[in-house]
Amino acid sequence: MTLPPLGLYLHIPFCRQRCDFCAFYLEIHREGRAEAFVRSLIQEIRLSAQEYVAAGRNIQSVYLGGGTPTALATTQLLAILSEIRTHFPLALYCEITVEAHPSTISEQHLAQLRQGGVTRMSFGAESMEDSDLTRIGRPGAVHQTIIAVDQARAAGFTNINLDLMYGLPGQSLKGWQGTLARCLALAPTHLSCYALTVEEDTKLATDIRRGRSPAPDEGLQIDMDKAAQQILGDAGYERYEVSNYAKPGYACRHNLLYWTNGEYLGLGPSAQSYLNGTRFGNVADLAAYNASLAESRLPIEDHTKLSEEEQLRDAVIFGLRLIQGIPTHHLHQHAANYGLASVTARLLTDQLIEEEGERSRLSARGRLLADTIAGQLY
Ligand code: SF4
Q: Buried b / exposed e across 286-319, counting CB within 10 Å, b at 16+?
């Protein structure tokens, strides 16, 4: 029996400073911390490979996310990639993505990453207006994104993503349309467009509570989402998932694993895994992570074995977000398992979910309400 491919996610938990809206687990970058972390991560790569990689199970995608992976020195990133290659069997055309903050990279670094086998760069642009970046406490400037994309191309990258956020404090529909137009001028192969959500315990949440910043306007976010669909669709990008647009052939293979209920192994503090029907996660604390690996113990904190019904539930909820959708009988089986027949019928009648042939997916209107619908089906 051929085993399904596996994805590998590495969480690099460092940033130079925390953006106002960010609730991810991270530490402010310091040389000593980074060196200790890289030692631990290399140990985790070795131990995980012994524990989880069955013979013949190829890695189809490697994703270095964070945090800011490029807060590490390029030599450290290359050492991590080399360790992965030594211990995990990478598929021939393995997609290897590195997330980067545009201000943390140079043409020389990009060239070294390309030579080290990285196939895809993902730049956190967030907006193409400096005033937006200032209002969300995001370090860096728009011209650094423009330079980073040019340098990535010069270094040989042909697969480039830009991450954007919309519904930012003070951002207008016209401003968002301008950001999209400026991104299109850079001709990335992929764009991720996320609606700003306000997470508890962030500076942004405090600012909104104290009246120093406006709360996101849901109606405006819906208009911005529609604008993105229109502008990017006209420019030849396919919306293959609620927040993701790609030129044909450039959908992110690693992220598709998440939405198709594929399996992945997450390494690094706070990283999550899904393997053999079990979800498990690493401790979200760098000191505890380092201590565990110093004793040659994997830093796993919790394990949840999913029942068949729960596996189907997750496949339905994630899969509906995709343009390719899910088999319709999975939707109805999930509804029967959890007593959701009337909820599902209403979503179909309201045309938030559409059936086409044997498959079901969120309709264009349903994609605007994806998180609400997921909540109703959970
Ligand atoms: S760069 Fe990304 S991970 Fe780091 S603080 Fe900002 S949003 Fe969070």
A: beebbebbeeeebbeeeeeebeeeeebbbbbbbb
Confirm if 266 and 16 have CB atoms less than 8 A apart.
no
The pLDDT tens digits for 267-325 are: 999 999 999 899 999 999 999 999 999 999 999 998 999 999 999 999 999 999 998 99
Using CA atoms, how far apart are residues 122 and 102, in angstroms rounded to an integer?
A: 9
Which residue has 């998932």 as its token pair? 241
Tell how strand 300-305 and strand 353-356 pair up.
unpaired
Cβ proximity of 321 and 331 under 8 Å: no
Closest CA to 168 of 115, 215, 101: 215
The CB-side HSE value for 188 (13 A sphere, CA atoms) comes to 30
Is the full-model pTM beyond 0.85? yes
- Cα angle at 169 between 164 and 174, to 5 degrees? 65
Alpha carbons within 13 angstroms on the beta-carbon side of residue 8 total: 33
CA atoms within 13 A on the CB side of 85: 13
Number of Cβ atoms within 10 Å of the Cβ of 357:
8
Q: Which residues line ligand 1 (CB under 6 A)?
A: 15, 18-19, 22, 24, 26, 66-68, 101, 124
Determine the distance separating the centroid of ligand 1 and the alpha carbon of 22, expressed in angstroms.
Answer: 6
